[in-house]
Amino acid sequence: MEMLQIREVKASFSALVAAAEKGRPTLVSRHGRLCADPLIALPTERPEC
Fold it and tell me: Which domains does the chain have, with CATH numbers?
């Protein structure tokens, strides 16, 4: 799992979403400390209620 700083995530958000869709989540850090849960893609189909 990759860890990127917030500024790096902002600069490459589309690529990180594409990576998450392929099963490669990304951790987000601020000043070297984890600050957000992994960026994970949700299933493309919504379950019916």
Answer: 2-39 (3.40.1620.10)
The answer to whether 15 and 9 are in contact (CB under 8 A) is no
User: Which tokens hold the place of 15?
Assistant: 């690529």
- State if pTM tops 0.85: no
- Give the per-residue pLDDT at 2: 85
**In whole angstroms, what is the distance from residue 46 CA to residue 40 CA?**
16
- The predicted pLDDT at position 7 comes to 94
Please provide the DSSP assignment of 12-45 as one string: THHHHHHHHHTT--EEEEETTEEEEEEE-PPPSS
